[in-house]
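*** Protein under study ***
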Amino acid sequence: MIKTYRGQLADGAQERLRLRTKDGKTGYRIVRLDIMSEEPYGSGSGEHLVKIWKKQQTTIDGTVDFSNSNLLAAAIGNNSTSGYTYPNVTTVVFDNEVINQDIYVTAHDNQASLKTNYHIELELIDLSDAQASQATLKAMRTVASR
């Protein structure tokens, strides 16, 4: 089964997506992340970066570090009026991550501070007691490392 979330974030904004359940036996895997500028054909250029995190972020910036174990996915989109030649959207999803806690979506525009639309597809996974405990403990360690 697939669960979807969609929304729009201002430059520098963060949104919490509530995935946590009482028993923790519902897991999720990100299968898709799409982004689009609020003004794809507007008069200004935009370079949008959307990242999905395991924990709330204190800094929302334009850097991407794949070695950060809290990063679940990242997408960069370009709607440049100057005709850059790199692809319009590049997305990387670490689909081997199974989560059963809330996640956080952040947005950053490196050009014009435009809002960014996002669409996320999550695969629902039934977890055994052991898997639920493991995912919850892993999330607790992440929170403790803040």
In short: The chain has one domain: 2-144. The chain has one helix and eight strands. The CA atoms of residues 53 and 71 lie 5 Å apart. The beta strands are 2-9, 14-17, 26-37, 47-53, 71-78, 89-93, 103-109, 116-126.
